Amino acid sequence: KETLDKGLEKTKDSFFSKLGRAVVGKSTVDEEVLDEVENVLISSDVGVETTVKIIRRIEERVARDKYMGTDELDRILREEIAALLSDKSDINGKLETDDFALPANKKPYVIMVVGVNGVGKTTTIGKLAAQFHKRGKQVVLGAGDTFRAAAVDQLKLWGDRVGVPVISHGMNTDPSAVAFDAVKKATDMGADVVIIDTAGRLHTKVNLMNELTKIKRVMQKITPDAPHEVLLVLDGSTGQNAFIQATEFTKATEVSALAITKLDGTAKGGVVIGISDQFKIPVKYIGVGEKIDDLQTFNKMEFVDSFFK
Ligand code: GDP
User: Fold this and answer.
1) Would the pLDDT of 309 be above 80?
2) Predicted ipTM?
3) Residues in domain SRP54-type proteins GTP-binding (predicted)?
4) Ligand 1 centroid vs 194 CA: distance in angstroms?
5) What strands lie across the sheet with 139-142, from one edge to the other?
6) I need a surface site. Which of 13, 90, 133, 218 has the fewest CB within 10 A?
7) Alpha-carbon dihedral angle through residues 234, 237, 239, 242, given to the nearest 10 degrees
């Protein structure tokens, strides 16, 4: 919770102080206040569509109750924002006690990680591996981003650091062959989880779709219901670009969960709200720093709370 508050400090400071200014000298939520709230949401990168939705819901409440004091605004905004967010509790019906717990009936649990270069994909894989490893789980990594030498090397570094095997065929090799070998290795050694990196080239959509489809098909030769999770990594500091990437990737493959990174470096953490609302995909992880422990499982109530303090 403390790291979360610290990680979201910039967004919180900006959001909270702007919100404070929006209601200064006002006792009721009127048109003028709502216009200001709208500006605050837009400037936190909540996105226009989601902002309009939130403002409309507040207007409806004002109309229904005939009155809303500015002292109630925080609570009401909190409620409306939480209603648009989805986290792991929406998949499982509840949050587990250990947020990094893996489903017991899927072994190895296969996670395919997608996203464009630079968003923090490799780092997120490393951080995830560390969390699972720390819980005594056997982890295998697959260096399937074979398009860039740096990506393969970096994943190997993470593997060494965490102490888990990395399956790699080097650069410019077939990513689906890497995925196959990684799932095979994980199955043979009875590993708990295998995390496969992929190349995130967006410039050719058909290629992206074909590549991801092929990787899936090949790993299904070993584990028919793999991947159990397709995790899309988005850079939370890139605002509207994150929306565009989410659009492209959800067209190319079935994304089941989101990881939103670099929220520590931005005042635009509202992007989490907009993306969660528009894509209806649960945010599972958030990145709040470069260090190995700076990955958190996303909890919508905690997230909203950290905005309003
Ligand atoms: P990839 O190209 O998508 O694999 O991206 P990398 O994992 O190499 O990350 C790109 C840069 O972003 C690196 O310098 C990471 O340290 C940094 N990074 C990744 N996640 C976070 C985060 O949550 N917060 C911060 N501040 N930096 C991050």
Assistant:
1) no
2) 0.98
3) 282-295
4) 21
5) 166-167, 139-142, 193-197, 109-114, 229-235, 257-261, 283-287, 295-297
6) 13
7) -10
Do the Cβ atoms of 3 and 296 come closer than 8 Å? yes
Residue 261 CA, closest ligand 1 atom number: 23
Task: State which ligand 1 atom lies nearest to the alpha carbon of 126.
Answer: 7
Would you state the torsion angle of the CA atoms of residues 176, 179, 181, 184, taken in this order, to the nearest 10 degrees? -130
Q: What angle do CA 100, 265, 291 make, to 5 degrees?
A: 45
Q: Rounded to whole angstroms, how far apart are CA atoms 103 and 298?
A: 17
CA 123 – ligand 1 centroid, Å: 6
Cα 103 from Cα 261, distance rounded (Å): 24
Ligand 1 binding pocket (C-beta < 6 A) is 115, 117-123, 151, 154, 261-262, 264-265, 287-290, 294
Ligand 1, residues 116, 123, 283: which to mutate, most atoms within 8 A of Cβ? 123
H or E element, residue 250 = helix 240-252
* pLDDT value at residue 93: 53
Q: What is residue 264's DSSP assignment? A: G
